[in-house]
Amino acid sequence: MSNFHDHQHPQAETTNERARCEWDFNLRTTVSSSSSPNAAVSDSIGVIEFDPSDSVFATGGIARKIRIYNIKSVLVDHPVVAVLDHSKVCDYYICTPAKLSSLKWKPGTSGRVLGSGDYDGVVMEYDLEKKVPIFERDEHGGRRVWSVDYSKGDPVLGASGSDDGTMQMWDPRCDGGKCVSTVQPSASRSAVCCVEFHPFGSSLVAAGCADKKAYAYDVRKMVDPVLVFDGHGKTVTYIRFLDVDTLVTAGTDGCLKLWNVNDSRVIRTYKGHVNNRNFVGLSVWRHGGLLGCGSETNQVFVYDVRWGEPVWVHDFEPVAAAGSERGFVSSVCWRRVGEDECTLVAGGSDGLLHVFVGKKKPLSAQ
Predict the structure, then answer these.
(1) Cα 171 off chain centre by
(2) What is the pTM of this model?
(3) What is the mean pLDDT of residues 150-169?
């Protein structure tokens, strides 16, 4: 499988090569809740996820709503940056019983079922055609569920990580989600902040924890981790597999790290964004070899996997007035459009959505 079109493998030696951006990124659309002056207080966007068709995306956060958008409604043909309102471009929304920390489209449902993890420790699934919940799992003792994911194999299994210090794997076909396995990665029962199944056929599932480490388990024998990724200085907030052999982690130590899945070795560290306390998002575009994340400086950062410095940075808003708390970019998500084109959607703690279009530069301009 080729995941990096016209890119070196990330483990290739690139220390003598200067970081450069091979893409042109342009802000196409800004979506806000301009009709409500207090919207920023309650609309912080914590998660953005595209459906399997890449034509629809969902957002969730503090507002206790799952909002569904069609990308065609957001990417309007406009000579300048389009400024839109959530109420006008959101296809529909579903009210949820609690604030949301995680969303994930369930495989094998043709984009009809969306899973969520919430601040009350509950995992739910929603039928988007009927706009109703169809599954509920409350097995984390009321402690916040930070992350939810589904396996790509058959049968589909679910996994959730929580403030209770456990990662639980469960069968969504069973009423209430029969627990298949529960692990406590950290001896100190530190919160499990992120989980992800290996998307390329491996039997691995990975988790990142507040104990500064990430762990990988073999789903066939969930006893002890088969790999431990030890290198962050603070909480590991996100974990994403990049290809068969590598994964990326993000931490509140202000860096991303690329790891070799075969021996848990650090390949590269990415620095430039600021992240000391908040979840600022992490998304990998496997085809383009790009990493996207937010920053507590209210900026969007893009890294090329080959270089440790950012190749593109964009400010969300001007610096806040003295005495007021500055917002931050809290979620990001890539969408592949074609061989040489992509979309990057970023959400802020103030409820703003920014939609960027990226196009590969001609070789003569790189």
Answers:
(1) 23
(2) 0.92
(3) 94
